[in-house]
Automatic annotation (TrEMBL):
InterPro entries, alphabetized: DNA-bd_dom_sf (IPR016177), His-Me_finger_sf (IPR044925), HNH_nuc (IPR003615)
Statement: the UniProt record of this protein carries the keyword Hydrolase: yes
Protein name: HNH endonuclease
Matching SUPFAM superfamilies: DNA-binding domain (SSF54171), His-Me finger endonucleases (SSF54060)
MF GO annotations: DNA binding; endonuclease activity
Keywords, alphabetical: Endonuclease, Hydrolase, Nuclease
Coiled-coil regions, chain positions: none
Organism ancestry: Bacteria, Pseudomonadati, Pseudomonadota, Gammaproteobacteria, Enterobacterales
Record-annotated HNH nuclease domain positions: 54-97
Recorded superkingdom: Bacteria
Pfam family, one: HNH_3
Organism: Escherichia albertii
Annotated signal sequence range: none
Amino acid sequence: MISQNELKKLIHYDPETGIFTWIVNGLNRRKGREAGNVCPFHGYVRIGINRKLYKAQHLAYLYMTGEYAENVDHRNGIRHDNRWCNIRKCTIQQNNMNMPIRSDNKSGAPGVNWYENRKKWRVTLRIDGKFKSLGYYSDFELAALVSEEARDKFFGDFSSSKRGTDFR
């Protein structure tokens, strides 16, 4: 694992832009050039240092705090936006709280699905690994609102409804 000291000898991090630039020349790097690439599979910026790939958000956290955090979240959900104001340490559970809607979600609202037996919209929320039922609703808009309010209440700033906020 790289230390903050070692990192600062190799790379400069601009907290306003979230961009890393090389301070020294080396194999496949030039002083002053931007460090890292956006991975086409998951969208995170990755930077190779000493034959190890690091996600840029982890390096930004290390650069600014001196601590290497195992879990780092992008507040606005944009995986390549590594501005300091957009990065925060989190737990795995907190990071999972603000994931985008799954591709197999048929309702379009997180935590809301059609329950055929009752012919109503069912609202559920996963808290500490357990599903909590928040009721059944005839009206989809009401079910979506109940889901959003519950996520805001239980997940706070990590709620997926907080995404899209500009963190300048």
